[in-house]
Structure formats: C-alpha cells, structure tokens
Design brief:
The structure is a homotetramer.
Chain A (H helix, E strand, L loop, with lengths): L3 E5 L16 H20 L3 H4 L2 E10 L10 E10 L4 E8 L4 E13 L4 E2 L4 H8 L10
Antiparallel strand pairs in A: 1-3, 2-5, 3-4, 4-5, 5-6
Protein name (chains A, B, C, D): Acyl-CoA thioester hydrolase
GO molecular function, one term (chains A, B, C, D): fatty acyl-CoA hydrolase activity
Pfam family, one (chains A, B, C, D): 4HBT_2
Chain lengths: 140, 140, 140, 140
C-alpha cells in the first residue's frame, strides 16, 4: 500500500491571534495535498476525469497537537480507505518526523462538470486508487 | 432548548475557482458563530473563562448543498449536544429559510491560557450550556 | 458628490498573530466595498457591463491606525477620483465614527470577459460614476 | 546590490471565482517574502530587533499580468529603495523566468513591541539593509 506524500509549506498568515496555525487552515493543507494527489498524479495514470471536477461531501478532522509557524514544511500523508461506486474516502496525517499534528478523512464525490451532477468512479480510476487503499483508517 | 442564531455575512472571496463557497470557508462561518456564542454570550451569563481560551479538538462536517455568493447572510444555528467534564460538543446547521447547506459538529476543550493546559468546565458554565443542550445531533 | 457607504463586518480570523487586523485583510474589506459599489449598485443604474468583469490594475494603501477585531462593523466609504477612457480610480476610507484606519485607492479596468480584453467605459457608466466623482483624493 | 530571492509556492485556494490568483493574495506573497527577508536573514546578520516587530505603513502594487494556479512556485525578488531614520521601503517583483506578474513597494516601520511604539533603525540594521539598497525602484 502506497501513501501519497505532500510537502506542505506554511505561511506566516496561517497563524491566528493565539499564535498557532488556525484549526481551519489545516483543511487548506488537506486541500493542497488532495489536489496534488488527485489532479496531478491521477492524470499521469490515465484518469483525466478527476481533474474535471470533484466535490467534498464530508470531512472529519482531529487536532492532536498545536502547530506554530516555521520555515520548514509539514508533510501530509494521504491514502484511500474506501472506494465506493460514486465516492471515495481519503485519510490523512499531517506530521513531521517528530510528531503528528492532525488526523483527518474526507469523502470525495467525483463530479461531471458538463452534466452538473455526481458520477460513478471508472474502472480505470479504481485501479489507480487501489494502489493507495489501506483497510485501516488513521488511528486517533 | 434554545439555539444560538448567528447571521453570517458572506464575502465574495469565499468562493473558489469553481464559483462556489469553498468547503474550507464554511469552517470559518462555524468559527464566527462559535466565537459569537462562546465569547459574546457566555461572559454576560457569568462565564468569563471561555473568553480566556478554548481549543478545537475535532470537527465533523457534512456538505449538503453548494452555496454561491450572495449579498444576504446565511444563518448559523448552534446548540450543544454533549457536556463532558473537560469538553463540550457543539452542533450547527448553516441554512437560510429555504434550505440547509451544511451540518457540522465541533468538540471544544476549554483551555487555561495561564497554565497552558486544558481545564474542566465549571458549574457556572454548565448551567449556561444546558440552556442550549439537545439530545439529538443534527440529522444528516 | 455622493460617497458609497459600505458597512463591513469583521471576522475574528482577520487578525494575525500580532492580534491586529492584518494589513492584507484590509484589501479584502476594500474588495467587498468595491464589489458592493460596482456589482450591486451599477446594474440598478443601468450598467450591467461592470458585473461582467473588471480587473484591478493598481492599489495604493496607507495604514493610519491599527484595528482590533470587534463585533461591530467598520465603514468603508468609496468615491471616484478619476474617470479615464478605459479605467477609473476609486478612493476609500475605512473608518468608524471615532477614527480613520486606512486610506486607499484602486485603479480598476473594465474587462470584456467574452473578448478577453480591457474595454472602454461606456457613456452610461460615466454618468453613473460621475455622481461619485470628487476632485480630491483622500488626504493622507 | 543584492536582491533577496524568495521562492513562493502557490495554493489552489489563491484563485478567486474568476480563476486567477486574486489581487489581494499577491500581498500575501509579498508578506511571505518580506518575513523571510526580515525575520530570517536579519537575525543571522545581527539584527534581532526586526524579528521583534515591524508595522506596514503603506503598500503600492501594480498588477502587470494575471497569474493562474500552477504547481511550480513564483519568485519574489525584494530589495531596499529607501532607508529613513525610522522607516524603510522595500521594492518587489513577483515573476518567473518568462515574465513579471506584479511590481510593488512597501513602507515598513520598525516597532518596539515592549514600548508599543515605532523606533529608529539601528546602525547595525542600516548596514544589513544597505547590501540590498538600489537607487531605482521597480520600473512600472
């Protein structure tokens, strides 16, 4: 089982008035990792359709440790925990070599932009996603 | 059981390149509603301590319908679904009179900024929170 | 000479780690005021074209006083200081009854989205903009 | 004369509903470059005081070309165009090898956080800044 590794640079403005990376901003980090995973890797594996659109149906996110701005990036590891007929679930950990900051998961629905409606996952996409499929979600 | 009602103005920049309010931005709306609920109302009811600090431990959020920018605000209704010894769970609906856009919940941990650690919920805070307590979470 | 008055709600997240509304965020307030001015008022006065697109060519912004998050909105007053053949200049003050926080100006270029290029200001738009035209820019 | 070079990663969410990097977001890029310049480099050259605080007094920014999200970073080149008694002016270009997207300048005022007031630039800081001093601002 592979994990997609995304090196995520922080911005100073990611911190809020309490001096920590704001809880909402971590979902931006997940978005960047997910787009890198689905938009950048998928086409190379023959799944141009994901680039055409997908919709977030649900997030779950657990905040394990606070994070302060620094110049080195954090790592977002992503993998797939469920492949349904018309949705998939991505799990993530936001971490560095010392510790985990966030564990999360997102239900994504592929979307047909032309027809303006959700669509099924193709056989080709399934093949690609299965490389990243792990039975276990992130342990919280 | 009361619900806290927050009228949440949108910003044009809340939309992403797909022309919808971005999924991450809805968590900003929840943050605004939660701060309004906990920072503004609580002190008047004798709970200055919440203003001193609290930490988000977890979010769950379901996206029911897309939302496009408009000049009228959306309503964020908030209530309490669980009061623990050292945490509480807030449920929300983001809606307008016609429909619901988002259902979500957040686990909040009161935080002692001086001691730099989580703290227990006081008896006084419990009284305040119980006014907003409902057994049922938002139906998804 | 009229000024366009926009009541601009703050968000808690507009503050940065120094506990003030971040300098970049004030440009969001200007954006909201400008959109309210150009997208909302203009159509009612017969200038649907502005809603079709416009591009920011330049900002100048002076920070007069720091602003801390509060629950009452600030006021953004906007007016027009220059109407060119294919651009206009909007001046602004961000203020409340006690003081001015920011003075700024923006050069806006009307844009033809279909043709993908800048376009001239129509006679009709000029009439609308002239109501807000003042010779003097904001005094800094 | 040296220029400070900052490699600035974009985020997908930097785009607005028109599908371009939003004009306000470019000021975030300038902020990241400026913080990298002043907070990270200055201390190593013996100017810890800049890290203690500084305030933006003014921005001027010209938008030369639209920018669309991509996975490769843009470069922010920064240099100093004026060193006053209690302020300095930084000029920037946001570019890639092919073209320039933005030219801008910022007046920064060093700030004494303990005394809560602006302060003078030290002789030591002047020496550091002079390495980046160029008489000419960015040509617009």
């Amino acid at each position: 089982m592979a994990r997609h590794i995304y090196s995520c640079p922080l911005r100073w403005s990611d911190m809020d008035a309490f001096g920590h990376v704001n809880n909402v901003v971590f979902l931006r980090y997940l978005e960047e990792a997910r787009i890198d995973f689905m938009f950048r890797l998928a086409p190379g594996d023959g799944s141009p359709s994901f680039a055409g659109g997908s919709v977030v149906a649900r997030h779950e996110i657990d905040y394990v440790r606070p994070l302060v701005h620094r110049h080195s990036p954090v790592t977002v590891e992503s993998w797939v925990t469920k492949i349904g007929a018309a949705s998939l679930t991505i799990a993530y950990e936001i971490k560095d070599p010392e510790q985990v900051y966030v564990r999360a998961s997102t239900v994504v629905v592929p979307y047909d932009l032309a027809a303006e409606r959700p669509r099924r996952i193709s056989a080709e996409e399934k093949l690609f996603l299965q490389e990243y499929l792990a039975e276990e979600p992130a342990a919280v």
